[in-house]
Amino acid sequence: MKKKILIIEDEAAIQNILSEPLTFAGYQVTAASDGLKGIHAFWKQRFDLVLLDIMLPKIDGYTVCEMIRQESRVPIILLTALDSEDDQIKGFDKLADDYITKPFSIKLLLKRVEALLRRTSPDAASDIIRYKEITLSETERKVTVFGDEVPLTHLEFDILSLFLKNTGRVFTRDDLLNLVWGYDFAGDQKGVNFHIMNLRKKLNISYIETVRGVGYRIAKEN
Ligand code: CA
Predict the structure, then answer these.
(1) Burial letters 163-201, b for 16+ CB under 10 A, else e
(2) Distance (Å) from CA 66 to ligand 1 centroid
(3) Averaged pLDDT of the chain
């Protein structure tokens, strides 16, 4: 089952920056655009993690954090442009689990979400993805093809995992740079081609298709 993440953030652009990569990473994302809508969404269903902006209309993030804490120990990551020590301490005083200041690296954010979820729900059974002859274990970071382990680098693993969680979807080289490397990566698109080439060699079966002029994908399983 997909883990559910609630994003409470009033800026539409940031909502999108957050929800897209989280969706690609296999989470089910719900977004709320102010503190009141956020707390209502939280009351309506169970979430595995909350990403919470501090400067919010109607009810500010600190208060939302307190309200959620009155009834739940769900992991909360505060997101904010405020980066002074006092603001961060106030965030932890309200019992947030982590704190990320804007602008943030998407890749780092995904890692933190992953780490928090691993700590709070150690049930690893849902971390296995199967696709044809491939088995990928997210927690062990292990990939097997026909039962034989294929040693992959971190980047190769992340690329494969992204493709397998979104079969049928074409990722451009820019998508991959953004989602796998993080926006602050100073490399170029040739680096992407190089890693895809190595990944194909290691898997030794032509799972990864090139979509000419667009990018790469792994087709949906028939
Ligand atoms: Ca805001």
Answers:
(1) bbbbeeeebebebbbbbbbbeeeeeeeeebeebbeebbe
(2) 17
(3) 87
Predicted TM-score (pTM) of the model is 0.68
Structure tokens at 147: 């039962």
Closest-CA residue to 26 (of 165, 176, 168, 136) = 165
Model confidence at 107: pLDDT above 80? yes
What is the crossing angle of helices 106-120 and 12-24, to 10°?
Answer: 60
Q: Which residue has the tokens 């274990």?
A: 137
- Residue 106 and residue 61 in contact, taking contact as beta carbons nearer than 8 Å: no
- Protein residues near ligand 1, an ion, with CB under 5 A: 10, 53, 55
Between the two ends of the chain, the Cα-to-Cα distance in Å is 21
Ranges assigned E (strand) in the chain: 4-8, 28-32, 49-53, 76-80, 98-101, 128-131, 134-137, 142-145, 148-149, 171-172, 208-211, 215-218
Condensed to tens digits (0 to 9), the pLDDT of residues 60-101 reads 999 999 999 988 889 999 988 767 778 778 877 878 899 888
